[in-house]
Amino acid sequence: MQDLLTRFLFPMCPHLSLSPPPPATLWLLLPVCLSVGPPPLSEMKEKNPWHSPVAIIITVIGVIVIVALVIVAVLQNRPLAQKYKYGIVLDAGSSHTALYIYEWPAEKDNNTGRVEQKHSCKVIGPGISSYASAPQKAGESLKACMKEAEQWVPVKRHPETPLYLGATAGMRLLNIENSAASDKVFEAVGEALQKSPFSYQGARILSGQEEGAFGWVTVNYLDDRLSQGLETTGALDLGGASTQISFVSDQYDGSESPSNAVNFRLYGNDYELYTHSFLCYGKDQAQRLKLAHQTQSGPNAVEDPCQHPGYNTTKKYSVLYDSPCVSNRKPQGAPATFLHTGTGNVKQCQDVVKNIFNFTDCKYSQCSFNGVYQPSLQGPFGAFSAYYFVTSFLNLTDTSVPLEDVRKKLERYCATSWSQIVQEHPGVKEKYLAEYCFSGTYILTLLTEGYNFTSESYSNINFIKKIKGSDAGWTLGYMLNLTNMIPAEAPDSPPLPHAGYVSIVSICAVVIFILLLFSLRPLWARHCKKQQIV
Ligand SMILES: Nc1nc2c(ncn2[C@@H]2O[C@H](COP(=O)(O)OP(=O)(O)O)[C@@H](O)[C@H]2O)c(=O)[nH]1
């Protein structure tokens, strides 16, 4: 700018000074120069017409306008200092409760900012369904994580932060078994959560269909597949008490088995989702189903091929059968306990595990198991929750490894003695250690024989825990839905990115200015000539 002034203003006002003034004083000289007027005619002589006062004034104003335009363009879309909004979801699962805090930029229009998991807290103790006989304790168990949440969410955001509690298969089972007890647990939990400074939106049991569908939304939202209209990823969720499979298949339009259909319109695209939740086929309840099968005759001892050789524990029949998944199968006249020992044989374990599925009855064109319709598998799949816990422990998350090799690895693991397993994993809870052989076998059987993954389609499965820092699970999808964070229609986006917008405005301003100067050229020429004639 100062350079321009030195070149244009100073030659116009030679009567003010003999040498160019310092750049800082050029601006001050401009009004003086203009008020004094043009230099004496004698000095004009054959001067360049560009040095006329009109040209210089236009130049200076033009430059100022251009600079102003560019500044406005740069500042207009500049990202503002980030402010965030928050949402909290409590996942009251069968084995435990977890709290998730989500955050997203507050200033984005139509809630279109990206939602991310900011923090998670694992509630100490069992799932809320285990507090049926002491409901108050269910509420108390949440206190520590709620206090943590108060520290993670800025105080001024507390009253506007929605807080949801969703319960899954553990509470579904308690509700089937004893609905009064289930209501009392919700009452106690509601009381505890109402005392929090957040905006408590209620606690409820999610249907299996909701659990499956929101897990699918979470995975595809985090992968940016919904906003970009890309092919979606199926979702495989393995909990303690239920398991869900959800995916979009070209073959499925909801006409066959409509109860498995969930329709979404997200970002301007329609999705006809196939989803099914198998109650009692989560890994803990499946273990009970298997043991119930092995103890049909009420024996004193069970030799279990799904336990490591050398494993032996005394178990109570009353505890094993204390679940609606198996309670009606309790053998008559069984002793109080049985001795549970291991033989560590994967092939026999597979056979025992297969007994908990019904692969034969199917009134539809095709089924997964237990007479449940399932269209042909399509696309990639994300497998999370216990799918991940188990496969990551067993080092089986790499699905490019052929299924046969996976089975051999599992065979070696199951055949390892219990004492060696305990010795090699001192930091792992014995409860979990005792389950991995069964869980690995169950997962492979469920995927291949239950859902019909083949040696090829198995490699389409991704065992995942988190996607871009957020846990895979139903909670994020649930919150996105309840807070209307995913628009049905694609939001209007500016036609140009910010940098492109600034460049175009700047170029246009310069071009207009140059054209203006050229259009005024004849005027300056005449002006200069007139002065010379006089
Ligand atoms: N191995 C292992 N299993 C886990 C862990 N956390 C939870 N589980 C088990 O994984 C299963 C699913 O847990 P979760 O996803 O919390 O499901 P939910 O409790 O049924 O909602 C249950 O059988 C849990 O006992 C873990 O850190 N390691």
Q: Percent range for helical residues?
A: 40-55%
Q: Just name the CATH architecture of the largest domain.
A: 2-Layer Sandwich
Which structural class do the helices and strands define? alpha/beta
CATH topology of the largest domain: Nucleotidyltransferase, domain 5
**What fraction of the residues are assigned to beta strands by DSSP?**
15-25%
Specify the CATH homologous superfamily of the largest domain: Exopolyphosphatase. Domain 2
Distance between the termini: 35 Å
> Order of strands side by side in the largest beta sheet?
8-9-7-6-13-14
How many strands in all? 16
What does the main sheet amount to? 6 strands, mixed
Q: Provide the residue-averaged pLDDT.
A: 89
Radius of gyration computed on alpha carbons: 36 Å
General shape: elongated
Low-confidence stretches: 8-19, 23-45
Number of domains: 3
Number of contiguous helices? 20
| Bound molecule kinds, no repeats | guanosine-5'-diphosphate
GO molecular function: apyrase activity; ATP binding; GDP phosphatase activity; ribonucleoside triphosphate phosphatase activity; UDP phosphatase activity
Pfam family, one: GDA1_CD39
EC number: 3.6.1.5
Main location: membrane
